[in-house]
Amino acid sequence: MLIDGSCHCGNIRFELSWPDGGNEIAARACGCSFCVKHGGVWTAHPHAGLIVRVADPGLVSPYAFETRTAVFQVCARCGVVPLVTSDINAHRYAVVNVNAFEHFDASRIRRAGVSFDGEDTGSRLARRQRNWIARVTFAPPPLPAVNA
Questions:
Q1: N or C: which terminal CB in the chain sees fewer CB atoms within 10 Å?
Q2: How far is it, in rounded angstroms, from Cα 127 to Cα 77?
Q3: Which CATH class is domain 2-119+127-139?
Q4: pTM to 2 decimals?
Q5: What pairs with residue 74 in β-bridges?
Q6: Strand 25-30's sheet: what is its strand order?
Q7: SS3 string of 30-77?
Q8: How far is residue 87 CA from its own chain's centroid?
Q9: If we measure between CA atoms, which residue out of 72, 137, 98, 110 comes closest to residue 6?
Q10: Residue 36: what are its φ and ψ, rounded to 5°?
Q11: CA 71 – CA 44 distance, rounded (Å)
């Protein structure tokens, strides 16, 4: 299944290739102060694929805090955080914000709260390697249409 998503202004867009099977998508509402303040509800699947397109990279404000092992990709124009990336052993992993999904039946999202307080850095990185999206590509934006 292919799921499109973006920030509010469309500067950061993604295509999430979700493995078939199952009607629900599990999503985690992180309890950290950043996610609570930004409405971050994250999903990932280790067999999913993600293509990210950024129209204006100058309008992306990457933000990392605490352990600095994850980078929140914040759109500087509209303030939405559609995805988070984590580079582990020279490999990029990601989670996407289900609130950024477009044209998707929200009743198919199973939301649950989660807290990672007390998790050490090694355990955190291992969890991401097991559960986050492992096929992440940042692609150039599509070329504009040519009027004939």
A1: C
A2: 32
A3: mainly beta
A4: 0.89
A5: 61
A6: 60-63, 71-75, 83-88, 91-97, 41-43, 25-30, 109-114
A7: ECCHHHHHHCCEEECCCCCEEEEEECCHHHEEEECCCCCCCEEEEECC
A8: 13
A9: 98
A10: -60, -45
A11: 15
81: tokens are 């955080």
Tokens standing for residue 22? 């199952």
Domain ranges for the chain: 2-119+127-139
Amino acid in the structure at residue 117: D
pLDDT in tens, the chain (148 residues): 999 999 999 999 999 999 976 678 999 998 888 989 998 999 999 999 999 999 999 999 999 988 899 999 999 999 999 999 999 999 999 999 999 999 999 999 999 888 787 889 999 999 999 999 999 999 876 656 555 4
Q: Tell me how long the chain is.
A: 148
> Residue 101: which residues within 8 A CB-CB, separation 6 or more?
3, 4, 5, 109
